[in-house]
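User: If you would, consider this record:
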Amino acid sequence: MSEDTFRSVEIDRTSVGRYVVRNARGGEMSMGTGEDDTFTPVELLLAALGGCTAVDVDHVTSRRAEPTGFTVTVSGDKIRDPELGNRMRDLTVTFAVTFPPGPDGDRAREALPRSLRQSHDRLCTVSRTVELGTPVSVREAADQGATQSR
């Protein structure tokens, strides 16, 4: 059976340092350099890390009980390394999840540590990609706006 594995987003420049990111389903969001309230690319990376695990954990635990609180904080240090280039390090995803008292809440609390491990170790595509280190290629598309000289 064939699976659709391809994923993509398109980013259009709206002005200096401002962009709109669009997905294939029609969703869009603003991205920028951090000089206003738009998310920066690094903040989106952090959001992707936390969001990926949040989805996994939420699916498992909410089957047992609806959380009364569900907050994920993702942090790290952005460093400028003259040898290896700019990057993030010491990335940490912290879950603060609470469930109601009672047997259903107890089952959800019991499932939480295992669901966090499963997401981190196997399920979350974003954190698995970051931890395993996937090469990134950057290329220039054919210049469609240039006029050919004769």
